[in-house]
Amino acid sequence: MSNTQKTGFVYSNEILQYRFSNQHPFNQMRLKLTTELLSDLGYLKPEHIVKPRIATDDELNLIHSYDYIQSIRRASHGILNDNEAKKYGLDGSDTLQFRMMHKHSARIVGGALNLADKIMDGTFTNGCHLGGGLHHSLPGRANGFCIYNDVAITIAYLIKHYDLRVMCIDTDAHHGDGTQWSFYTNNDALIYSIHETGKFLFPGSGNYTERGNEQGFGYTVNIPLEPYTEDDSYLEVLNETLEPVVASFKPDIILSVHGVDIHYLDPLTHMSCTLNALYEIPYKIKALADKYTDGKVIMFGGGGYNIWKVVPRAWTHVFLALIGEQQQQGKLPEKWIAKWTPYATCELPTTWKDQKLDYQLIPRRKEITEINMKHATQVLSWFK
Asked: pLDDT of 187-204, one tens digit each?
C-alpha cells in the first residue's frame, strides 16, 4: 500500500444511541468496544475520525418514501398509531419504536454521507462506518433491526452527486434484501451478496436466481451458502466469484458490508466460520479496491450479535485492512481487557486467535462444500 492513502473512521458517542431496548440483540456497544480496542492498540487516531451529521429528508428520500420518513418521525414521539406501525414494519419484536429514532437513524446515514464526501474531495482514500450497514431497511418499511438503509442511500447519493458506478459487496450472513430491492431495476449499481441461504434464515430471500429486472437484469448477484459452511468453503466461493464480478462491472467505488455473523458463535445464524475468515474478508476487498477503484472503498458494519467474543476482534481488522496494517497476532491489549472485564457477560478473549473450544465438527462438510460451489459456478457462468 502506498503511504499516501488516508483512512476515515465514522464515530461519535451519539451513534451509540441507535438502540431498540436493553434486551435487543442489536447492540451498538460493539462499536464502542471496537473503537476502544483500535485506540488501545494505537492505530485509531483523532485525525481518522469523521463526525456524523443528521441526514436531511431529501437525502433519506433518495431511497425512502416521504410518508415512511414522516412515520418514523411520529414514532420518535410515540404518536404512531397501530395501523401505521403495522404498515411501516414497526409492530414486531425485531424492529421496535424508540424515542428520537428518526434523529438517531438519520445520524447513521449522515455519517456515511460525510465519509463519502470526504473520499470524493480527496481528504480520505477510503474509510469505514462500523456503526452503519443497516441493509435490511426497505424503501417504505423498517425491517430486520434497520430503520434507514444507510448503504442504499450512500449508493444513490454517490450516483446522483458524483455520477459514479457503485458496487456493493455484502458479506453479512443475512441477505442484503433492502439494498437489493432498492436497485433491482437499476444498472448504475451492482449489488453482490454472499450469505447464508434464506431457507432457514431471515429475510428468506437472496436465491442465486434473483438477478435483477428490466435495466437492472444481471446487476444483482446472490451467492447463497448452506448452513454450517466453514472457512475453507466460504473463502473458496468468495475468491472464485468476487473478482470476476468486479472486473466485469468496473466500479468507480466499492461499498462493502461487514456483518460478522457468519461466525460459529453468532446466536442468530447457522454458519460455522471462524475469525480466520472474518480477518481475511476486508483484506480481499481492500486489494480489489486498490486494483479496480483507485483505492476508493467504504466499509460498513452490519450484523454481528456476539458482541464480546467476536465483533471487536473481527471489526478491528476492517480498519487494519484499510490502513494497510497486518493481521494481529498474540495477545489483546491488557488495558482493553481490564477496562471491559467488569461489564462483560462472559469471559473476554485474551488473544487474537479463536480458541475454538466449543467448535462443532460438521459431518456434512463435503456435501456443503459441493452445493456452495455449484451455486458459485452457476453465477460465474454469467460473467464469462
From this structure: 999 999 999 999 999 999
